[in-house]
Amino acid sequence: MKRVASGILPMIAVDREAAHPLQRQIYDAYRTAIVSGSLRSGERIPSTRLLATELGVSRFPVLNAYAQLLAEGYFESRIGAGTVVSSSIPDQFTSSGPVSRTAAASPRSSVSHSSARAPARPLRSTPRPVAHRIPAFRGPEAFPWLGGLGPFGIGQVALDQFPMNVWSNLIARRARKQNVRSFHYGDSRGLLALRETIAAYLRTARSLRCEPGQVMIVSGSQHALELSARVLLDPGSHVWIEDPGYRLARMVFALTGCHLSPVPVDAEGLNVAEGIKRCPHARAALVTPSHQFPLGSTMSASRRLQLLDWAQSSGSWIIEDDYDSEYRFKSPPISSLQGLDTNDRVIYIGTFSKVLFPALRLGYLVIPHDLVDHFLAVRRTTDIAPAAFQQEVLNDFMAEGHFARHIRRMRILYGERRRVLKESLNRELGDAIDILGSEAGMHLSVIFKRLKSDVEVAERAARQSLWLWPLSVSYFVKALHQGFILGFGSTSVEEIPRSVRRLRQLLN
Predict the structure, then answer these.
(1) Which domains does the chain have, with CATH numbers?
(2) pLDDT digits 0-9 by tens, 328-384
(3) Are 250 and 482 in contact (CB under 8 A)?
(4) Helix (H, G, I), strand (E, B) or coil at 305
(5) Is the separation of the CB atoms in 189 and 217 below 8 Å?
(6) What is the model's pTM?
């Protein structure tokens, strides 16, 4: 039985204003996770001290909840393993078995039994040629703010804090274990052991509904977007994109020859009602619901349900890019959109670039059961299978608990950098700005109330090794705001105030 590495925390949100005491809330959250199959027999439970720290509560309600779960047989204590999910829970109280393809809530099977739902469109295994539609590539010369490492760079992590000795030792150990089989082609979905580890992690930490057979290892989120576009879309298909949104994602759909339908984003995330009004029969919607890029909003529960209802009724697909969901600093944990989907309409994308390091080039897709073969067909015609060695090392890193420990350390580190950046911006720029999206992730957006051209400032800043991503270039139709997207992952606490002062001087 696959176990969650020590310290991976389940999705638990406590409410001090609720009628139920904290002990009952924690108990209910664990019991629900076990009964639903999100937590499986033998999977480890974090220590009471760790969970209390993460939830920001006293240890006593956690101890009492654990004692009740142990007494009722949901937990058991094992020598050398700590507290784990019991191996003797009756089968009728869990849903831990893998879902068969015939029993899965597939789009086509659910549609064929309900006249109220529009039929899903047929899938292709390969796209038609669209060479004449390919946009010209524009590199660092056109976007100088992408040109280097340093203060405020987007997508940059605290590389100096990565446990390099641990990673190097795992590489050396794996290298000594290589044999003839190690040099052969692997599974097109990726290493099974890693897919099992990722599936267990996602069920626990992100509330996903997934099995290892649905997980496909890819070389980052951009590769995952390309595969999704090739499988789901035809030239001429309409796709909802967030406006403002991620430029490279737009390019993927342009390469497929799709028509992009920009949908505005507000404080509740993608405006689903406006998307339906503008393009009701779009083939797919690309969303970043946990931490919208670049504005940082979190999609509200009502919008999430509205989006899922639209996808099911119109026979459309939702591509959920959950690119930096591991880092939330104040608000309760946000479960995935995929975890709410009961009709297999969501393709989930995750990446290790933001939590480990970008050069690893490993990410993953979680694919609805009845789409797995379609994704495999496209995968085999592109790069056949992912390289095995890095997958083996990553699996060791996760299975031995290093991954969970690293995330906890980085959450504290990035939380402090975020706090110092907000304070510095307010101190230096005050009423001239509005700060958005600072409650999660590794970047925030700053809107300037009286700035004429953020692009011009960003170009001047790049010549001084200050990497300001202009907010206006993320808009598809019309730039509603001038400002900057500021990453704080690779900028030290000591460097942040100096860099903000340099930004103020540039504006002056």
Answers:
(1) 22-93 (1.10.10.10), 147-161+404-507 (3.90.1150.10), 186-400 (3.40.640.10)
(2) 877 656 778 998 899 999 999 999 988 999 999 999 999 999 999 999 999 998 889
(3) no
(4) helix
(5) yes
(6) 0.78
